[in-house]
Amino acid sequence: MWNFATKALLFFFIANASWWMGFGEGHAAVERGITVQDRKTLAEQGDPFAQYELGVMYIRGDGVDKDFVQAAEWLGMAARQGHAQAQYNLGIMYFKGHGVPQDDVQAVHWYRKSAKYGFRSAQARLGSMYFRGRGVPKDNRQAAYWFEKAAEQGDTDSQINIGLLYEKGQGVQKDVSQAAIWFRKAADQGNVSAQYKLGLMTFNGEGVSRNRLQAASWFRKAAGQGHARSQALLGLMYDKGHGVDQDYVEAARWYKKAARQGDSPSQFNLAIMYEQGTGVSRDNVRAWRLYRSAAEGGHAEAQHNLAVIYATGQVVKRDDVQAVDWFRRAAEQGYAPAQSNLGTMYAMGKGTRQDFVQAYKWFFLAAGFLQKGKKRNEVRRFLYLTEKKMTPAQFDEAISQADKWLAAYYGRKAKR
């Protein structure tokens, strides 16, 4: 099932922004009713607005052949006269290497000039450059400064980014409540990522009062815009009755929307519903297909359940080799039931050669991950029975392999 947690990644919200965000902000892109030649005449006479507009026309191929080199030349003329939008867009051209050599230092130079005039898109871009350390040394304090400048002018991406900085305490003193304020500003403007983030915070009571009904409302807003994770979490809330009346049909409806977008947890949860006939008509074939999709997306429990289907011959023809493959994939992710079943396959020589070293290794790992109880005691019994069939050297090798696996596993987790 879904874990109500978030790993905030800055610049997810900014990286895909339109190149030429400056057009239309504060000045009409191209004034109609003036011929290209008239505009060129004005531009050659030094009119910065005409120079800027001519640059826009060359970028778009509007009334002239598209030509980034000409665009950069005219934008440069306007930029050097202090035209903020021209400065910003010239920065973009240096950043992208269009019409000029790619140059992050020059991009920062022009972003900064435009930002100092208060142009919010430039402020947002400058914050991004400081955070990523492109064209300038990485500096979270400067990143926060420029993001907040742009956020104060209503730039939703910057509102999210400054919120994330407050949430993590990067460049500013950590303040989850302040983070929530900025997320709320972006969410109120309809920003889907902010709505999702605010839904998580409201569900968990982080920076705001815990209110699952309100969380469902934010998830619903984002889900209505096609946000897969919000659809998944809304489905989970209906599935479990968290903040809403439990409704399996409604849960399945939202799971389906998220599953169609490739959301593995939703594919897994929906597979269970089809397998059990909860909220949908029972359909084991559809359940198998959904398990397969989720498993291919890396979902450990789905990989395990898919392996069980192959091992038992439910729905599809029995295939022990496929079962071992999917048990192994889930086991490598630390999923204890898969580790136990993989140990069984090695012990019995099903789908693979019989190997008591591998069997003991996986039983040993499963026993360590399982909570105290019947299943753990059963795995310990398997350990005992397997050890009786091993030589001392085989036993030592199994323990050595298990120790190496644990070191690598926790090493990977520490890097996340």
Give a structural overview:
By secondary structure, this protein is mainly alpha-helical. It has 21 helices and no strands. The protein has helices at 36-44, 48-60, 68-80, 84-96, 104-116, 120-132, 140-152, 156-168, 176-188, 192-204, 212-224, 228-240, 248-260, 264-276, 284-296, 300-312, 320-332, 336-348, 356-369, 374-387, 392-415. Helix 1 (36-44) packs across helix 2 and helix 18 (336-348) packs antiparallel against helix 19. The model is unreliable at 1-30 (pLDDT under 50).
Features:
416 residues; 21 helices; 68% helix; disordered N terminus
Number of strands: 0
Structural class: mainly alpha
Strand content: under 5%
Computed CA radius of gyration, to the nearest angstrom: 29 Å
Shape by Cα distribution:
elongated
Average pLDDT confidence is 92
Separation, N- and C-terminal Cα atoms: 20 Å
pLDDT < 50 stretches:
1-30
Portion of residues within helices: 55-70%
Tally of helical segments? 21
Order of helices and strands: HHHHHHHHHHHHHHHHHHHHH
Biggest beta sheet attributes: none
